Amino acid sequence: MELKQVLRVLKLKAWFIIVFILFVTSAVGVFSVFYMKPVYEASTKIVLKSNGETDGKLVDYDVLLANVMLIETYRDIVKTPGLMEKVVTAYPEINMTPEQLILKVKVNSSNNQIMSVQVKDASYNKAAQIANAVSDILVQEIPKIMNINNVSILDQAANMPNPKPVTPNIPINIAIGFILSSLISMSIVLLREYLDDKVRSEEVIEKTLGLSVLTVIPKMKKNEVFPLSLRVTSDERVGERTYVAINQ
Predict the structure, then answer these.
(1) Residue 27, Cβ neighbours under 10 Å: how many?
(2) Mean pLDDT over all residues of the chain?
(3) Which residues contact 58 (CB under 8 A, 6 or more apart)?
(4) Is residue 124 domain-shared with residue 173, that is, in the same domain?
(5) Which residues, at least 6 apart from 38, have a Cβ–Cβ distance to it below 8 Å?
(6) Strands (E), 40-169
(7) Total structural domains in the chain?
(8) 128 in the same domain as 76
(9) Selection from 44, 41, 48 nearest residue 134 by Cα
(10) What is the dihedral of CA 55, 60, 61, 65, to 10 degrees?
(11) Which of helix, strand or coil describes residue 48?
(12) Domain span holding position 206
């Protein structure tokens, strides 16, 4: 299908494409606003202190590299059932099992001495409570587990009066719905045109058969054809002979 033909088909079916896009985009917007539950995220930051740091001296690069490697170890410790069991015991108001906490808590680091403990929940206050609880227990347990006291909480999750949910992102959802509905509607129109084997123009006949079109019968509506047949019948009756019987 040539580009000119594709554009012609899309122009003819523009009404269908517009209606389809409006319907899908509106449905996505309504679903995002009224049916998707908001999810909030809270996070705390933990910093790994460099014990090799002295007054007026720079920290050795090897020490920094070792600390970055320790961050990876601490990330694994956070996701252990043993540590989460201590969190559940120390903070029973969380009302979750260690397995549930492991699935809810996420630990990130960016190749530096800081790692963040992130928690997502339908309630921001509960997410902040869990993030702070896990961070507190981690800072308490690291000296016992690693025999080294080099971690401290840099920033705790604070209570927010009007937190913004991380999901759903309504503008993003609507934009995705618009793009997908545009692609789907245009694909439907072009697919139907491709599967339609009806001849709709003289150009198609000339291109397919390689023959010139001699004449074209115009499309006529039924109410235009029916009066014509009546006129022809009436004209034929005018020329008919009339016979009169003569009584002898």
Answers:
(1) 12
(2) 83
(3) none
(4) no
(5) 122, 165, 167, 168
(6) 40-48, 105-109, 114-121, 151-155
(7) 3
(8) yes
(9) 44
(10) -90
(11) strand
(12) 202-238
Residue 133: alpha-carbon gap to chain centroid: 33
181's tokens: 């509905």
pLDDT tops 70 at residue 67: yes
Encoded amino acid at 140, one letter:
Q
The pTM of the full predicted model, rounded to 2 decimals, is 0.68
The whole-number pLDDT of residue 55 equals 44
* Domain contains 244: no
Provide φ and ψ at 206, rounded to 5°: -60, -40
Q: Is 5 helix (H, G, I), strand (E, B) or coil?
A: helix
The span from the CA of 10 to the CA of 136, in Å, is 61
Tallying the residues shown for the chain, one arrives at: 248
Do residues 83 and 146 touch, judged by C-beta distance below 8 A? no
Closest CA to 182 of 6, 33, 11, 19: 19
Instruction: Convert the pLDDT of each residue in 2-22 to its tens digit.
Output: 788 889 889 999 999 999 999
Residue pair 10/189 in contact by the 8 Å Cβ criterion: yes
